[in-house]
Amino acid sequence: MTVSRVINGKSGVAAETRAAVQRAIEALDYTPNVAARSLVTSTELRVGVLYSNPSRAFMSEFLTGVFEEASTRGARLILLRGENGHPPPLPAIEELVASGLAGVVVTPPLGEALPVLSILRAAGVPIAAVGAHGVAGATCVRIDDRLAAYEMTRHLLALGHRRLGFILGNPDQAASAERMAGFYAAVREAGGVEVRVAQGDFSYASGLAAGEQLLAADNPPTAIFASNDDMAAAVVSVAHRRHLDVPGELSVAGFDDTTAAVTLWPPLTTIHQPVHRLAAEALARLLGHGEPGDCILDHEIVERQSVAGPRG
Q: Sorted alphabetically, which keywords does the UniProt record give (predicted)?
């Protein structure tokens, strides 16, 4: 085990032997498997958490879930944050991985960010991606975004709405495309529906811009379905500024059921995505305490006071 002792900086190896091993390592451009090393050389479970999500409400629930699960599993979390949906600096990710980890949990949108995934895959680190779809080499923990959006759109149509607005999320996330696909599936099925779509990025600011765009149009929507609660809350704010009654003159629906859904007036009708449980399940599966493979958790429509049938 002389080579292992040199790699791990242990004593008990002659200087001449150590030098020879080091020369061989350099010639082979050898990089140790840091994930394996963390399991062999330490009894401490160190798990990296990479996050960069513009929704503060989503991140609050995610971090609560992952911290509670870490406490249960005896794992130590090392957090690395990016800004506004962008990854943390790649050298910082490389340094974190090189420190030795049992695995990494990544939040949307980082679970589908190729530069991040390339670093993690190259190091052989196990990956659990929350909210991601079909990521090779990772366990994805999510809900059925398409079905959830389909069901919410059907709910709005059943109330009599025939002029619908839809606000997209981050275009780099598969969940955004899945939610839009569910929306359009319900619209096509119903027929005779006038649709307006605006681009957002899951942030409150993008919801303000999208809400203004939709409501400034001629013959604006009677109901707007936003791809998350932060953007839906922004639409409610725009409606208030325009002296529109919610839900009397405009219905607004969200997605996630975060604290943002119940801290404004009227409280949002939304899709309950169990963010807390998604985070906990991702960590549990990463540490081998759940069924292998991807995991799809249940969702449900939560009816509150921001949605009603159209007037007239």
A: DNA-binding, Transcription, Transcription regulation
